[in-house]
Amino acid sequence: MDCVVDVQRAVTCQRHSVRLTLNSLRQDRILNEAAESADPLRLMRLFGITE
């Protein structure tokens, strides 16, 4: 896979024409875990969410 990490901390994959920021990846991971578990305390501990 031809992926490059640029100065703005984003991953650009030329083969799939996808640009993912670390923030969007984290948000996606949180939403995925929230869909699997209805336990808000687990999500807070897992992702270090304080607010």
Describe the structure.
With 51 residues, the protein is an alpha+beta fold. The protein has a domain of 34 residues. It is 45% helix and 22% strand. It is built from two helices and three strands. A three-stranded antiparallel β-sheet has the order 1-2-3. The longest helix has 15 residues. It is elongated and about 40 Å long.
| Poorly predicted segments | none
Largest sheet: 3 strands, antiparallel
Mean pLDDT: 75
Distance between the termini: 37 Å
Q: Strand pairing plus helix content: what structural class? A: alpha+beta
- Assess the beta-strand content as a share of residues: 15-25%
From the alpha carbons, calculate the radius of gyration and give it in angstroms: 14 Å
Number of strands: 3
Shape: elongated
H/I helix tally: 2
User: Can you give the helix content as a percent range?
Assistant: 40-55%
Order of helices and strands: EEEHH
Main-sheet strand order equals 1-2-3
Outline the fold blueprint:
Blueprint: E1 3-5, E2 10-13, E3 18-21, H1 22-36, H2 40-47
Antiparallel strand pairs: 1-2, 2-3
Quickly describe the structure:
With 51 residues, the protein is of the alpha+beta class. It has helices at 22-36, 40-47, and strands spanning 3-5, 10-13, 18-21.
Key phrases:
45% helix; alpha+beta; 51 residues; three-stranded antiparallel β-sheet
